[in-house]
Automatic annotation (TrEMBL):
GO MF annotation list: DNA binding; DNA-binding transcription factor activity
Keyword flag Ribonucleoprotein: no
Top-level taxon of the source organism: Bacteria
PANTHER family with a match to the protein in the record: CBS DOMAIN-CONTAINING PROTEIN, CBS DOMAIN-CONTAINING PROTEIN CBSX3, MITOCHONDRIAL
InterPro entries cross-referenced by the UniProt entry: CBS_dom (IPR000644), CBS_dom_sf (IPR046342), Diverse_CBS-Domain (IPR051257), DRTGG (IPR010766), HotDog_dom_sf (IPR029069), Ser_kin/Pase_Hpr-like_N_sf (IPR028979), Thioestr_dom (IPR006683), Tscrpt_reg_HTH_GntR (IPR000524)
Protein name: Predicted transcriptional regulator containing CBS domains
Species, as recorded: Ornithinibacillus halophilus
Residues in CBS domain copies: 195-254, 256-314
CDD domains: CBS_pair_DRTGG_assoc (cd04596), hot_dog (cd03440)
Length: 435
């Protein structure tokens, strides 16, 4: 039998679109307290069944489908990076689908530059021209100007060409931060978006036995299952630790862990990712306010969702992407990596940017952990010492070494060299998330 809370949700779902809803009306119609009615209406609002409009009240609405996040306009980019418009002012209202950092040969650059994108490049006039011809806007770093015919072309194409005094790393970081903020404002990813629904979830009932756990384990290869009572409420959890050395004919209720950690559909992805790392949990039940199982979310679900966010179309080739693709393992050395300092990795002085230095340290540490522990690195604390500046075109060697490691944490010492000269070092503390 469904609870009063569920009955209210079902009643709201049955109402026609546009129907007005009030706490008092729901309480009177279904014979429940106003407090129960209020909480149920709030949940209905959270899941998109109703909407509260000022001076109108709460009405039944059509459940909205997910929409693509709003894109940044070139006018917003100018404000973000303190830019100056050199040409193509009439195109400032247009939006960008991605950005590309142009620190490569022209032919390679144009393979990545397409219509509605933004090319971030220095004082390379031919690159400005080719990008505009391809339908892309141009952001010139380092405070440089461009030729008059380029400005005229930008006006004809109605594509902005912008100049900023910042270097490529700073610009990319600023735009990425703005995109991230835009994503948060538009839509936060919730557990309900990524969870396996209850119809497909594996679980045990209070009347089951330890032998049933073994059967589910064999079918699914999972080791953690929620335990439900007769009302489908989560009352426990059973893991491999709980059934070790236990007889197979024991009731599940005798071995399960009571009051397990659960989450609701509106729990954020960031929260559950953090919790899984710190608690070492592989699977978490998803419940409603009545503790009735709605589905389960696994560590694999969370990792896939995090990777999907990183592949959003506006997030182009970032500095971290460039560092990762530019870093190679040093032959003959088991845990050493090298990377060439290319233009977009430098600051306004032409030396390795502090932010890129940090990215190099983190990327090398991550590769070391993947090799030794086969896990994903989540940085907890990072102390960096910059000993000497590293000029452009240098080939730096990054040498991470594991000082301490547990099942869920690692401490890594990193040394960075330019040739035989040490130019920096770092101490990194990290949590490890298993794949």
């Amino acid at each position: 039998m469904s609870t009063k809370h569920e009955q209210i949700i079902q009643h709201i779902t049955s109402l026609s679109i546009g129907s007005k809803i009030s706490v008092r009306q729901i309480a009177k119609t279904l014979g429940v307290s106003e407090g129960t009615a209020y909480r149920a209406i709030k949940e209905a609002e959270n899941i998109g069944l109703v909407s509260t409009i000022e001076r109108v009240g709460t009405i039944r609405i059509e459940r909205k489908k997910k929409e693509n996040f709003e894109r940044l306009t070139f006018a917003e980019i100018i404000n973000i990076i303190d830019g100056q418009v050199l040409g193509g002012r009439e195109g400032l209202h247009k939006t960008l689908s991605k950005f590309v950092i142009g620190a490569m040969q022209l032919d390679a650059m144009m393979r990545y530059t397409e219509a509605d994108s933004l090319l971030i490049v220095g004082n390379r006039v031919k690159a400005h021209e080719l990008a505009l011809q391809a339908g892309a806007a141009v952001l010139i770093t380092g405070g440089f100007d461009t030729e008059d015919y380029i400005k005229k072309l930008a006006d004809e194409k109605q594509l902005p060409i912008i100049s900023t005094g910042y270097d490529s790393f700073t610009v990319a970081a600023m735009i990425n931060r703005a995109i991230y903020d835009q994503l948060i404002k538009k839509e936060i990813v919730f557990v309900g978006d990524i969870a396996t629904p209850v119809e497909e979830a594996r679980y045990l009932n209070t009347g089951d036995w330890v032998t049933d756990w073994y059967q589910l384990n064999e079918e699914s290869t999972h080791t953690r299952f929620p335990v439900l009572d007769e009302q489908q409420r989560v009352v426990g959890i059973v893991t491999s630790r709980d059934i070790i050395d236990k007889a197979r004919d024991l009731p599940i209720e005798k071995v399960m862990t009571k009051t397990p950690i659960v989450v609701q559909e509106k729990t954020s992805l960031a929260y559950i990712a953090h919790m899984m790392v710190w608690e070492g949990i592989e699977v978490v039940p998803v419940v409603n306010q009545s503790q009735v199982l709605q589905g389960v979310v696994s560590r694999q679900d969370v990792l896939k969702a995090l990777q999907q966010i990183q592949r959003q179309p506006q997030i182009g080739e970032t500095i971290d992407d460039i560092v990762s693709s530019n870093m190679e393992e040093v032959e003959g050395e088991e845990t050493a990596y090298e990377a060439k300092v290319i233009p977009q990795m430098t600051n306004q002085l032409g030396t390795l940017s502090n932010g890129v230095f940090t990215s190099l340290v983190t990327e090398a540490s991550n590769r070391l952990l993947q090799k030794l522990k086969k896990g994903e690195l989540v940085v907890e604390n990072l102390t960096v010492y910059f000993l000497k500046p590293v000029p452009i075109d240098s080939v730096v060697q990054v040498k991470p070494s594991l000082l301490e490691a547990g099942r869920m944490y690692a401490k890594i010492d990193v040394e960075v060299y330019d040739g035989k000269e040490q130019v920096g070092k770092a101490l990194l503390m990290a949590q490890i998330m298993d794949r």
